[in-house]
Amino acid sequence: MNFVRMFKKRSVYKLYNKYFKRAGVLCLLFLLLFSLYGCGASTKVIESEDMSITIGKEYKKETLANATWYYASPDGMALGIRSLKDDVEKSGLEVDSASDYAEAYIKANSIPNSPSLSQGDGYEYFEYTKKVSGTEFSYITFVYDNYDEYWIVSFACYKELYTTYKKDFIASADSVEFSKK
After folding, report:
1. N or C terminus of the chain with fewer C-beta within 10 Å?
2. Phi-psi region of 92 (alpha: psi -120 to 50; beta: other; left: phi over 0)
3. How far apart are alpha carbons 67 and 54 in whole angstroms?
4. What is the pLDDT of residue 4?
5. For the stretch 72-84, what's the b/e string if a residue is b when 16 or more beta carbons lie within 10 angstroms of its beta carbon?
6. Nearest Cα residue to 146 out of 110, 97, 94
7. 171 and 153 Cβ atoms separated by less than 8 Å
8. Distance (Å, whole) CA 165 – CA 180
């Protein structure tokens, strides 16, 4: 009889031990996953003038001449340029829409191969590749017409990474919001 009790106690102990080990392993896996991916957001919202946009949290604020805002990441960059329509008109450009402004921007910046314009949700955009200091970069540039201003939002990365990042760039472009007007 003592043997049966001892056997039952050991069986129960083995079952508890088995379940506690599994629970412990699962807890360690969850901790490992959270430490690798973190609990924080993978994006951040930046605001400049009357515009906001969501970009990846890996972008750090930098300064670039003539850019309204500029952020750099280890693999590329994001920038925004705001142009008041009055200033565009005073410069002598005849621009009546985002597509006109995009065409003028392409010409003024000698963008190679005259990229064609495509339409997105509330913007025009174009893509191109350009070699800078011996390294090839791919660019995607979005143009917004916001009442009395035009906005250029451009992303660039190493050419070999472009297909990986393109969907993120478009998601950022789709996140743009204007607060005034």
Report:
1. N
2. left
3. 17
4. 52
5. bbeebbbbbbbbe
6. 97
7. no
8. 30
Residue whose pair of structure tokens reads 């002598």 in the numeric block:
92
> Which tokens in the block code for residue 100?
């006109």
CB 171 within 8 A of CB 56: no
Q: pLDDT per residue over 103-148, tens digit each?
A: 999 999 999 888 999 999 999 999 999 999 999 999 999 999 999 9
Judging by DSSP bridges, how do beta strands 51-56 and 43-48 pair with one another? antiparallel
Question: Which segments within the chain are labelled E, that is strand?
Answer: 43-48, 51-56, 60-61, 69-72, 76-84, 118-119, 124-132, 135-146, 149-158, 177-178
The residue type of 95 is V
Please report, for residues 32, 145, 175, the alpha-carbon distance to residue 121 in angstroms, rounded to integers and kept in the order given.
39, 12, 10
Q: Is the pLDDT of residue 15 over 80?
A: no
For residue 168, the tally of other CB atoms under 10 A from its CB is 16
Distance CA 80, CA 149 (A): 13
The span from the CA of 159 to the CA of 76, in Å, is 10
All residues at 6 or more sequence positions from 8 whose CB lies less than 8 Å from its CB, including other chains: none
